[in-house]
Specification:
92 residues, mainly alpha, LysM, LysM_dom_sf
Length: 92
């Protein structure tokens, strides 16, 4: 989700229908007082979780790399590459 003029984290959370605390946990590097127009935030799906102490449950999105995921969660890329291997989902 992209930040638009006049947005706050609360407005973005309401628009995405997720609790504010959950949105904050999924975007640990975001400063609520310094949102920038065009800034992109991750919106967690129902299957994803971000408990305060981790571990995160993250759904891979098109274009994701180990580095981009690690950067988003403020972790070294090697940490993302050590994540459990994912089995492909069966096609229906």
């Amino acid at each position: 989700m992209q930040v638009q003029r006049g947005d706050t984290l609360g407005k973005l959370a309401a628009r995405a229908n997720v609790p504010l605390e959950r949105l904050e946990r999924f975007n640990p590097g975001v400063n609520a007082r310094r949102l920038e127009i065009g800034q992109r935030l991750l919106i967690p799906t129902q299957q994803e979780r971000a408990p305060s102490g981790g571990p995160y449950r993250y759904q891979i999105r098109p274009g994701d790399t180990f580095s981009s995921i690690a950067r988003h969660f403020l972790a070294p890329p090697v940490a993302a590459s050590r994540a459990p291997t994912l089995a492909p989902l069966p096609l229906i």
